[in-house]
Write a sequence for this structure.
């Protein structure tokens, strides 16, 4: 069984999706890194993304995904590293989906609190912080969706190239 030739249109679509994934992960990273605010009333509190390890992991996974996407957008089409792309795309998709889900759970706790753990909601005191965190997570989910589309296009082009001709 020889190498499968992927149509040029599919390659262009996947390259465009990689560029979109790069932009989404860079934006999610920048919004999360900029999420900090200080509240004075009713108590002196500084909300920052470094308060929770989940937000740090979200930031790290988006940095890794943006570097990965940028590397593969700039990779020459004839490089042998493209053979690893689908496997690495699936791994990156899994990491991003897990970190976005964990960050979403932490943002839910920030917004609603947890009465069992006596964790009060903080979004009423630091609304800009919560807005930036939710925006970063939403944009990060866009990056997850881009990676899902990359995987679907790549696998369908390899398994059944006649569909996309």
């Amino acid at each position: 069984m020889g190498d499968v030739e992927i149509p040029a249109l599919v390659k262009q679509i996947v390259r465009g999706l990689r560029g979109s994934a790069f932009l989404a992960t860079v934006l999610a990273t920048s919004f999360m890194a900029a999420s900090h605010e200080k509240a004075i009333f009713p108590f002196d509190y500084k909300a920052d993304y470094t308060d929770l390890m989940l937000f740090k992991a979200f930031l790290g996974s988006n940095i890794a995904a943006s570097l990965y996407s940028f590397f593969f957008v700039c990779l020459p089409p004839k490089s042998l590293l493209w053979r690893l792309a689908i496997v690495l795309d699936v791994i990156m998709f899994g990491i991003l989906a897990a970190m976005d889900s964990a960050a979403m759970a932490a943002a839910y706790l920030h917004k609603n609190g947890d009465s069992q753990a006596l964790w009060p909601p903080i979004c009423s005191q630091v609304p800009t912080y919560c807005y930036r965190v939710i925006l970063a997570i939403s944009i990060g989910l866009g990056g997850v969706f881009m990676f899902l589309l990359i995987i679907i296009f790549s696998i369908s082009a390899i398994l059944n190239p006649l569909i996309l001709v």
Summary: DSSP finds four helices and two strands in the chain.
